[in-house]
Write a structure and sequence with these properties.
5-stranded parallel β-sheet, globular, about 550 residues
Length: about 550
């Protein structure tokens, strides 16, 4: 369990809190800057407000926020709240899906639209593709000085900062240096609340400072909320409760993936860790009785009867559960700061480095090589469809190929699902834009799979999942089944100067992910819908219904 001095050692920035090779102690010691953010965030938000005033003087009325990393989850969380915005309209884009890009594009008044590109490095290929696309669209609209419709939010000396200088962006806004994305919640929420929403920095800062003071309390003081959370995470992990169930009332549902990403990616290493399961209110399942712990979040003023009933069911079943109530979106940053401290503390007795991501780099390198080959030779890696039926191609390799039947699509899926572990989960990974129609169809499929298989179903959208949950799936407990969904786009979009389209970029990301999972001997099936996503999902729904 947690040692008594863990809190003091964390705030003293002691890298020996986490055991590991001596060569890594120095790199661990460079990851403590986030602990100072409560003192730094006030001036940061003040600079943001000055930037907002400048954009207003320039005549901007709408904002497109483009991000693929951790800040996109913060933006999505705030979009689901009733908080008032400073700009007329705000669009959020974290997808390379052609339909998602086109949906945003068709709504824009380019003459008054500001594009905010948020990336610590700027090297993510999807982010760069979106930058090139919208820069080209502004030129096509005959906007004078199109680059001055962009702001970069990044770190000093990053690739994005160099691009912004070369293009002549309106402004480059620098994050405090040396802070990992998933430990940057105060930056993300501080930026968004002061730039796009009408939050007062003083309120945000005072709440963050109060949370910092609480989380610095030693264990002997008896009331440290981060330490209490850490104890829950450690006890659950050590008792074999490998799934963290996160459920919330309506205003907080979109915050749960941000919590799950932080905890899961920090703790899940070397085949051990926690699998976050977050969604709208799940139906009770006996599966939650074993292998799970839970956090239930409520927002003051939200209807909470169903959530409270579900919490009671969890507690009655003996599922370790923590209840958290928030009062306003201004508390999001402080709440996440508490979870960051709890997660870092929990990693100490679990003997993992909370700041690294050892299982994601090779996938990113594979995508670059795949796209380079495609742009010059117009060839994808050779693959064999195991089943072709009703506009659906099923791909399986390695251990999965030996597991499944290829008599029909129905038999292939049935035998794939039979490989589930009793305390396992299924990851449903859709490389698609999350529009209401597709979201509803995937929600129905998820519910059907949960009922049919009796295990948690974790729904992730690609490619953003590769930036948020990839470490969880590839470094965490090897108890999952992975079902990847892709489709032929109804109408593709060229990426200026790239030699490939958004649809092809998205497919390359999915193919790379498939290969990465297979190379780790994880049971993985890839379904490619040749007649579009909606038709493919409808067919799979029918098959699952009959299983």
């Amino acid at each position: 369990m947690l040692v008594g001095k863990a809190v003091d050692r964390l705030w003293a920035k002691d890298p020996t809190l986490w055991r590991g090779p001596e060569g890594k102690k120095q790199s661990l010691g460079r990851n403590f800057a986030w602990l100072d953010l409560p003192e730094q965030i006030g001036p940061y938000m003040g600079r943001v407000r000055e930037l907002v005033a400048e954009t207003k003087r320039e005549g901007f009325q709408d904002v497109v926020f483009i991000a693929m990393g951790d800040s996109n989850l913060a933006a999505e969380a705030l979009l689901h709240t009733p908080a008032e915005k400073r700009y007329r309209r705000m669009f959020f884009l974290d997808s390379a899906d052609p339909s998602a890009v086109r949906t945003v594009d068709q709504q824009l008044d380019f003459g008054v639209t500001l594009f905010v590109i948020a990336s610590k490095s700027g090297k993510r290929i999807e982010t760069h593709a979106l930058l090139l696309y919208f820069l080209n669209r502004l030129k096509a609209q005959r906007i004078s000085e199109p680059a001055r419709c962009f702001i970069a939010v990044t770190e000093e000396d990053s690739y994005l900062s160099e691009l912004a200088k070369n293009y002549g962006f309106l402004r480059i806004f620098y994050d405090p240096p040396g802070i990992k994305g998933r430990y940057s919640s105060l930056i993300h929420f501080g930026l968004l609340l002061s730039a796009i929403w009408t939050s007062e920095p003083e309120t945000f800062v005072s709440i963050a400072m109060a949370m910092r003071d609480l989380c610095r309390q030693p264990s002997s003081a008896g009331k440290n909320p981060a330490l209490e959370l850490a104890a829950l995470l450690v006890a659950g992990a050590m008792e074999g409760r490998e799934k963290l169930l996160l459920t919330a009332t309506k205003s907080l549902q979109a915050l749960t993936p941000r919590i799950g990403q932080l905890v899961g990616a920090s703790i899940s290493k070397a085949g051990h860790g926690l699998i976050p399961v977050s969604d709208e209110l799940p139906k009770w399942s006996e599966n939650y009785r074993r292998g799970c712990m839970a956090a239930v979040l409520t927002m003051h003023g939200d209807p909470d009867v169903e959530v409270k009933e579900f919490e009671m069911q969890l507690r009655t079943a003996g599922v370790p559960t923590v209840a958290i109530e928030l009062n306003s979106p201004e508390e999001f940053g402080a709440e996440m700061f508490k979870w960051e401290i709890a997660t870092a503390l929990a990693c100490a007795p679990l003997n993992v480095n909370p700041f690294d991501e050892p299982d994601v780099q090779e996938g990113r390198e594979r995508v670059s090589g795949m796209l380079e080959t495609f742009s010059t030779k117009h060839e994808w890696p050779t693959r064999t469809a195991r089943v072709r039926e009703k506009g659906i191609e099923l791909y399986a390799e390695g251990d999965t190929r030996l597991q499944i039947s290829t008599l029909s699509l129905s038999e292939a899926l049935r035998t794939f699902f039979e490989a589930k572990e009793v305390d396992g989960y299924l990851a449903l990974i859709a490389f698609a834009g999350n529009n209401p129609t597709i979201g509803a169809a995937l929600g129905r499929l998820r519910e059907q799979l949960a009922s049919c298989l009796g295990i948690p179903i974790v729904l992730s959208f690609g490619p953003r999942y590769l930036r948020n949950f990839e470490q969880v799936y590839k470094g965490g407990p090897s108890t999952g089944l992975f079902l990847i969904l892709t489709s032929e786009p109804a109408e593709d979009i060229d990426i200026p100067g790239a030699g490939y389209t958004f649809g092809q970029l998205q497919l390359a990301l999915a193919l790379s992910d498939f290969q990465s999972l297979v190379s780790r001997r994880m049971l993985t099936v890839h379904l490619h819908f040749t007649q579009g996503l909606e038709m493919g999902l409808a067919e799979v729904e029918q098959i699952v219904r009959k299983l």
